[in-house]
């Protein structure tokens, strides 16, 4: 049996995973960055997610959902990373992409840092719901399924999280 024959027998093909990696790596890295506190951990989590999905690719029943599997794996691995170092969790600044101008870039970076700091101060579940809803642009039903909670819980966590985030951002304590 050749390598290509075994890679396409069942599940997601290596080509599909390669294409998904090329198209979505950065977006998954940004998703991890909203849940974790340093770039190297984010890169580790996203790489590990691709490795795990690659290893399980033959068990993927619906290859078109490969990105959803990757997102869920990134969220779960981010949770595990935070759990492992909960006592030593520190906020570290992350390098941001190039900006249009120095003034605009400085203001945007300050605002993003304030938002990330405010997000980190929310309860874990509130942060996860807000990141998945507003950054990953998932529906309430998708978030509920991904996190294993009810749609009502997603609405409650989202509402409380937004209210707390609003207070933190307005007070400048975020």
From TrEMBL:
One of its GO terms (molecular function) is DNA binding. Residues 113-165 form the RNA polymerase sigma factor 70 region 4 type domain. GO terms for biological process: DNA-templated transcription initiation. InterPro entries: RNA_pol_sigma-70-like, RNA_pol_sigma-70_dom, RNA_pol_sigma-E_actinobac, RNA_pol_sigma70_r2, RNA_pol_sigma70_r4_t2, RNA_pol_sigma_r2, RNA_pol_sigma_r3/r4-like, WH-like_DNA-bd_sf. Residues 21-85 form the RNA polymerase sigma-70 region domain. Keywords: DNA-binding, Sigma factor, Transcription, Transcription regulation. Transmembrane segments: none annotated. It comes from the Bacteria. CDD domains: Sigma70_r4. Belongs to the sigma-70 factor family. ECF subfamily. This is SigE family RNA polymerase sigma factor.
């Amino acid at each position: 049996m050749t390598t290509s024959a075994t890679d396409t027998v069942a599940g997601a093909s290596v080509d599909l995973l390669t294409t998904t990696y090329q198209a979505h790596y950065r977006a998954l890295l940004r998703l991890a960055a909203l849940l974790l506190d340093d770039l190297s951990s984010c890169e580790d989590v996203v790489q590990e997610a691709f490795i795990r999905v690659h290893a399980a690719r033959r068990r993927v029943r619906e290859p078109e959902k490969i990105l959803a599997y990757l997102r869920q794996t990134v969220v779960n691995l981010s949770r595990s990373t935070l759990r492992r170092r909960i006592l030593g969790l520190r906020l570290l600044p992350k390098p941001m992409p190039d900006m249009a101008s120095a003034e605009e870039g400085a203001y945007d970076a300050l605002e993003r840092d304030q938002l990330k700091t405010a997000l980190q101060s929310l309860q874990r579940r509130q942060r996860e719901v807000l990141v998945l809803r507003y950054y990953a642009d998932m529906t309430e039903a998708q978030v509920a399924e991904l996190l294993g909670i009810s749609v009502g819980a997603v609405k409650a966590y989202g509402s409380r999280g937004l209210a707390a985030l609003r207070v933190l951002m307005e007070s400048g304590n975020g």
